[in-house]
Amino acid sequence: MAFTIDLSGKQAVITGSNSGIGLGIAWEFARAGADVVLNSFTDREEDHAIAREIAETCGVTARYIAADMSKGEDCRRLVREAGRCDILVNNAGIQHVAPIPEFPAEKWDAIIAINLSSAFHTTAEALPMMRAAGWGRVINIASAHGLTASPYKAAYIAAKHGIVGLTKTTALETAREPITCNAICPGYVLTPLVESQIPDTAKKYDMTEEEAKQKVILERQPSKEFATVEQLGGTATFLCSAAADQITGTTLSVDGGWTAL
Question: pTM for this structure?
């Protein structure tokens, strides 16, 4: 049997998707024919303009809904306001780096809320919609740090490990239904945020930008190449195909060999 990926008639809700990985996934879904709902906590004209660009380019319906993923009710409202959620991508996330004794409690709370609890709230709201539609995909964007650890990132690593656990539980609760749940675990991805950090990193270590990428930023990524948002979008789209019907409760690493070490 030949498998093609046609997401026409499906609607995807992607949290944290007005830039970076989330936006890359939204574009790939739209290219495959899915309607998309973009999200972040801001409500600017440029946010809505991104949705219009996707709609006009791909010939799908695309909307932007502002919702604060640090607030459980906002997470649930996002899914309700979308009206339909065939595909849920839990992507929203923030980061803070500090040793545990110096890690601000408010930063811990915010990271756990946005990176982990938001996925619980959106999933809880989306699963009844998927069951009513008779099909669904939950895709959680974890990280190589959902499978391994680094110092000074306690909250982020705890949240991403939690996302992997939530993925497994969701998969088990839906295993007898046409609904799957998987986690994508990226290593370093070339997003606008990462690109903007390269010059400062080079200056800090008195290196060229290429040296800073290879020796500092990509130190733990054996391929010494960034993953791209398009690759993450392609992986997410594959998980929505019939070829992935029996892939559930697992992690897919897109990390250039990081977790093979």
Answer: 0.97
